[in-house]
Amino acid sequence: MGFLKEFKEFAVKGNVMDLAVGVIIGGAFGKIVTSAVNDVILPLVSGIIGTPDFTNLYVVLKGAVEPGSPLKEAKAVENAVIFAYGSFITEVVSFTILAFVVFLMVRGINKLRKKEEKAQEVAAPAAPAGPTQEELLTEIRDLLSKQK
């Protein structure tokens, strides 16, 4: 019974729930970034470079592949060795955008935390100074002399 209780405490803690929400939002955000890369950024870049689709950029290392054929057909050729660098370019662009957005988010959160810490430092009044050791000893001495 102790194992189940311990698991329940672990699963219900705020950090686990925050992590679950983060994973769900991260998955959705990943889809947004993928769409932005594939539907907005890469078409602009390919318009400048002149290649309409990065996924079909590849080099045939071995095999009889018809020049200019789509990557899917090139991979279907028996004993063909294909170096498909177009998909890699797409993933690198996607990762770079995602990393940059996460960096901006973390940077913004850190700025907010610093502002909050400064506001708390300003808002918190200084603690009143307590009596010094000498003042306490003097008070004790006076109380003792009154008792006699």
Short description:
By secondary structure, the protein is mainly alpha-helical. The protein has a single domain, classed as Large-conductance mechanosensitive channel, MscL, domain 1 (Non-ribosomal Peptide Synthetase Peptidyl Carrier Protein, Chain A, Orthogonal Bundle), CATH 1.10.1200.
Question: What do these coordinates show?
Answer:
- By secondary structure, the chain is mostly helical.
- It has one domain (2-124): Orthogonal Bundle (Non-ribosomal Peptide Synthetase Peptidyl Carrier Protein, Chain A), CATH 1.10.1200.120.
- 72% of the residues lie in helices and 5% in strands.
- The chain is built from five helices and two strands; from the N terminus they run H-H-E-H-E-H-H.
- The protein has helices at 2-12, 14-49, 71-76, 85-123, 133-147, and strands at 59-62, 81-83.
- Helix 2 (14-49) packs across helix 4.
- The longest helix is centred in the last third of the chain and has 39 residues, at 85-123.
- The relative contact order is 0.07.
Question: How are the SSEs ordered, and which strands pair?
Answer:
Elements: H1 2-12, H2 14-49, E1 59-62, H3 71-76, E2 81-83, H4 85-123, H5 133-147
Antiparallel strand pairs: 1-2
Helix pairs in contact: 2-4
